[in-house]
Write a structure and sequence with these properties.
eight-stranded parallel β-barrel, alpha/beta, single chain, 297 residues, globular
Length: 297
């Protein structure tokens, strides 16, 4: 199981006196496998542009993979999305992992001038077109024009986000991976069964499975409890109390590793976690201990 971490938000950077480049280097020095940033705008909270944030992280590091969790190509003109992805692949030296989603809420799509009802077809078009565009092939764009990007780059792994049946089928048909977030091990097992069947039906190999998670590690007095985190998940994502209680990764390294191992047993190969505890640097160091504990299982 590979372990990645969501880079700290702007409020956390300010709280911990920690800039994005330093955070990326800290995660790499701790031995984690990947660092990630979301792709949001016009959502009412402070956030950085995904491509710029990942470019900073890429140029501050040398080994660790950089990832978008998740990039929303359909909210942009397709050629612009491809150019951003190609540029990230170049500045990172080929270390990009590209989660792809079609979410973000209707208000975000309206702000971008894209019909919310078009998010599915536009996402499918992006998944079909990105490999050719990134390879430098002349491609016909949705508006009928033709373009070819230069320089060509190695195509990153495309992980389709979300746990819905639509996303699972999309991952099976068009992705290299399935990347659901905030999902129970039992739901992951059911999704894996559907994923494998859909991939077989499409004549494709079964995609890699990665998961997104949330948590707070350690036992410091100001660390959010599982109950605290579950209450927030139930409110924001409308999970039932029972499901929400299963989702946070908490406790010391051994306890957290035990919880993550349940996902590994259901086929997950990579976990990406957003950390909610105090002092992001310390949380990352504890996460590295979780990674080591998993390696000894």
């Amino acid at each position: 199981m590979k372990i990645g971490v969501i880079l700290p938000s702007l409020p956390v950077q300010q709280r911990d006196n920690l800039d994005l480049a330093a955070a990326a280097r800290h995660a790499e020095d701790a031995g984690l496998d990947s660092i990630w940033h979301g792709d949001h705008f016009a959502i009412g909270t402070p956030t950085m542009d995904c491509a710029i944030a990942l470019a900073v992280a890429a140029t501050a590091t040398t080994r660790i993979r950089i990832g978008a969790s998740v990039f929303i190509p359909a909210i942009r003109p397709l050629i612009w999305a491809a150019k951003q992805v190609a540029s990230l692949q170049l500045v990172s030296g080929g270390r990009l992992l590209l989660g792809i989603g079609s979410g973000g809420g209707a208000a975000q799509w309206a702000a971008a001038g894209v019909a919310f009802s078009e998010r599915g077809p536009r996402t499918d078009t992006a998944l079909r077109s990105l490999p050719g565009l990134l390879a430098g092939e002349p491609m016909t764009l949705p508006n009928g024009s033709t373009a070819a990007l230069s320089p060509a780059v190695r195509i990153p792994r495309l992980w389709v986000g979300n746990a819905s049946t639509v996303a699972i089928d999309r991952a099976a048909r068009l992705g290299d991976g399935w990347f659901p977030s905030l999902i129970t091990p039992e739901a992951l097992a059911a999704g894996r069964t559907r994923l494998r069947a859909a991939a077989t039906s499409a004549g494709r190999p079964s995609p890699t499975i990665a998961i997104g998670a949330t948590g707070a590690l350690g036992h410091a007095s100001d660390t959010p409890s599982r109950t605290d985190l579950a209450a927030g998940l139930a409110k924001v994502y409308r999970h039932t109390a029972g499901v929400a209680a299963e989702l946070p990764v908490t406790g010391g390294p051994d306890e957290a590793a035990e919880r993550i191992a349940r996902y590994a047993a259901e086929g997950a190969e990579h976990l990406v976690i957003g950390l909610s505890g105090p002092d992001w640097r310390t949380q990352v160091e504890l996460l590295a201990e979780v990674r080591a504990a998993l390696g000894h299982r």
